[in-house]
From TrEMBL:
This is FXL18 protein. GO terms for cellular component: SCF ubiquitin ligase complex. GO terms for biological process: SCF-dependent proteasomal ubiquitin-dependent protein catabolic process. Residues 14-61 form the F-box domain. PANTHER family: F-BOX AND LEUCINE-RICH REPEAT PROTEIN 18 (PTHR16134:SF19), F-BOX/TPR REPEAT PROTEIN POF3 (PTHR16134). InterPro entries: F-box-like_dom_sf (IPR036047), F-box_dom (IPR001810), FBXL18_F-box (IPR047948), FBXL18_LRR (IPR045627), LRR_dom_sf (IPR032675). Pfam families: F-box-like, LRR_FBXL18.
Amino acid sequence: QEVVSEESEEESNGVNLMEFSDEILLHILSYVPCTDLVLNVRRTCRKLATLCLDKSLTHTVLLQKDYKVNKDKVKQLMRDIGKEIYQLNMAGCYWLPSSTIDHVTRCKNLVKLNLSGCHVTSLRLSKMLSTLQHLRSLAIDVNPGFDASQLSSECKATLSRVSELKQTLYTPSYGVVPCCTSLEKLLLYFEILDRSREGFMLSGQLMVGESNVPHYQNLRIFYARLAPGYVNQEVVRLYLAVLSDRTPENLHAFLISAPGSFAETGATKNLLDSMARNVRLDALQLPKAWINGSGLLQHLKFNNPFYFSFSRCTLSGGHLIQRVINGGKDLKSLTSLNLSGCVHCLAPESLFRKAEDDIDSSILESLVVSCCNLRHLNLSAAHHHSSESIGNHLCQLLSRLKHLLSLALPVCSITDVAASVEKPPTTPNLVPQTFGRKVRIGIQTYPRNLGDQANQKIESSVFWALMGSLRFLETLEIIGSSFSSAMPRNEPAIRNSLPPCVRAQSVGDSEVAAISQLTYLQSLTLAQLPNILTGSGLVNIGLQCQHLRTLSLANLGMMGKVVYMSALTDMLKHCKCLRDLRLEQPYFCAGAQFFQALSHCSSLQRLCIVSRSGTLQSDAVMSFMANCLEVIMCHMFMGESLTVCKNLQQSIVRSFQAERPALNVVIFPLLHEDLTEVIRDVPMRHLDEITLFKSRVAEEPPNLWW
């Protein structure tokens, strides 16, 4: 009774936050958005007023995902602590008017500034940079109408001292690159469309007056990422032309990410030959046409490589081991490896091999032993079939990589060989995996907890063991090797999908349940798992993976019916930390049941639904938006009429735009001919991070930009 009375007294007295040490309070305050600290928290008491202005909290200000910030808050923030800010990140603040940038001039001591995705004109950029004499790192967008001749001499003086530049191009231009004479890191993102809004073909030639030559003599890192399109390829060649004349001696990272076919030219061949003679690289990524069929990798020299990407190359496992890993050379420095779409990378040779043939486990074993410190590994978009040899399954070998934080695998690679060979397909799998008539399969029941799944003896599977060995994994992607999203970039929606791999036919609910062992999982992508019957494993994930922030589900189970809806609604009730949800499934019904469950996700910020012949209930959507106050992005591409979609979109904007300045709503028929025109107006942050489906594991080197 005495103990109980003491506990009751302690509870009644409570714990006074102000009794904590300054160090503990500063750590707690570091999780609070800077705008709240400066504009709200510091006004509560004298102690917090002092702590909120501590240099550790004001040195770096991150506004890039502070969706509640507006022009007035930015103005007040810069007025109060502008001189204390050394690093300012406003990337993706598309909702702020361009005049907001004027207030950045108060940050006289800025060293790093990220304005990617912000509206900045040439004149505003000139005015702002003229006052930032200490700036060394800059990220901006170059939009149509940009004119380098409007940059003042003071602005060019600032740019001449910038050593790190990230530039996103929406128009053919050198941007500010010629002014940056001290560049050591150059990141280029090419997002130029081949056609204007009026339908005219664009040219890859630079505007008149932009013939200045970039200065690459001090360059250490060159990175270029191209969106699909001919113009992007033409413009990047102009940037590379200078490199081909004289390769920087200190270059140690050379990366070009180009979708589709990007042919090698004489200039690029000269560049690669020069690199082979004069530099030692730590990071490498090249277009597939530059590697396929060439002996380039045999001549390139590497120092302490930390990133390799051979995405979509026909590189064989034999060449990978001999030319990159150097016959089993110790590559403990390698932390990120992208072999997505590299269909022969685990086979000794590719000349007479079919993509569906079994892998050579000795090649994967050499890779695992040599690169034992890998943190990010992408093996998706290929058929990696394990043989029946005991102990040599792909999952068993990967379980040795104890440092993995992110992993992408094809669905067919995680199945037990014996199960895929001996187990006959269940009745639901006899239904063709195509769009067609809905098939009644009866009332589904599913186990509610992990114990019921254990009774199905799934703990003995190789995938279950893999998930148990990678307890610190934060990102997992399981994607069908033949999966393609219904929303490709700059093209009409895909109407038909390829059938899943035969080896993948047995992958379903039990494998999904195995993922629930990943206690620290933050991002999960599941696409084209054909044997999903009830979605029971999703409930286990919702219960066990409490740190889950991003969830993407696509084409699970049979294509004519959403068989996992009941399990999904149960799962969502437990996802309190979920921020991004993407669903791509034909015939998906976004109705009251779904949105009521989704309303339990109190942290949700972005929702994207892609569904051919899918339906929605406008009242349920409006109720959901009213209940989930954090939601700032709602993208739905369904089978509804254009009138229904437009009316709902207008209703959401009219009702919630005023209180949610960053609100971005796109509701549009998936198969409408104007879909690509609608997509081009979506802010790049949302388009790249959630709306468009893609594998993101090892997509870029880690910590490429802050």
